Amino acid sequence: MESNQAKPGLLCNPEASQRTLYSILTLLAFLIFNVKCMMRIFGSYGSTLRCKSVERMKPIGKHSLLGASGEISGFQELLRYLDELILYDNMWDDGNSLGPKEVHNYLTRVVYNRRNKFNPPWNSLILGGVKKGQKYLGIASMIGVNFEDNRVATGFGNHLARPILRDEWHENLTFEEGVKLLEKCMRVLLYRDRSAVNKLQEGRVRVVASRLSFDPLGLGAVDCGRSSSSVRSYE
């Protein structure tokens, strides 16, 4: 005898809505240390470089900046959470504001909670900032792994660039020396990533009137050591 129990339709099928584990538009490596950062600005649709100018760093409140690699829609959702957090904090109007350490701790709880639901945001996040003269730089992975360091990276850079930063970074590095070091790291990543391009954006983080600001320094290109006669492009 056929059961009268209704069978779940397509819209009710749990598998029909589980799509956050499939990356669609992804962002590549991100490197940052002290007050210097460098990032690729391309968004990849599979192996296709679909978006050629993607903003990947956002100010959070007065004291923090957030950068990310991974799925761009997950990054946008996390930004919405943070906008609500900052709005709620500002509503108290008590003269205090969330610092980078508090925002980083909040992010780690969010991604760990999503991980426990088997629905993690497909992102690696870097949170940096300055409050009351104290610098802070932390990272959080898609499964909630987090730590603080003087130099952090995401994506391929976490495996290939951090050893270079660990060997050559020091506390008294000038801005120009820092840019050269980041370019060296990006060159190494460019050689080893088939979907990478040599178009980069670098920037400087400054404190202006007790607020943190990110100054993009324009687009640059890493010299990959190829002669112009060997380069082919298609429109």
From TrEMBL:
Domain of life: Eukaryota
Transmembrane segments: 20-42
Pfam family, one: Proteasome
Single biological process term from Gene Ontology: proteolysis involved in protein catabolic process
One cellular-component annotation, GO: proteasome core complex
InterPro entries assigned to the protein according to its UniProt record, in alphabetical order: Ntn_hydrolases_N, Proteasome_alpha, Proteasome_sua/b
Assigned keywords, A-Z: Membrane, Proteasome, Transmembrane, Transmembrane helix
PANTHER family reported for this sequence: PROTEASOME SUBUNIT ALPHA/BETA (PTHR11599)
Name of the protein in its database record: Proteasome subunit beta
Origin species: Prunus armeniaca
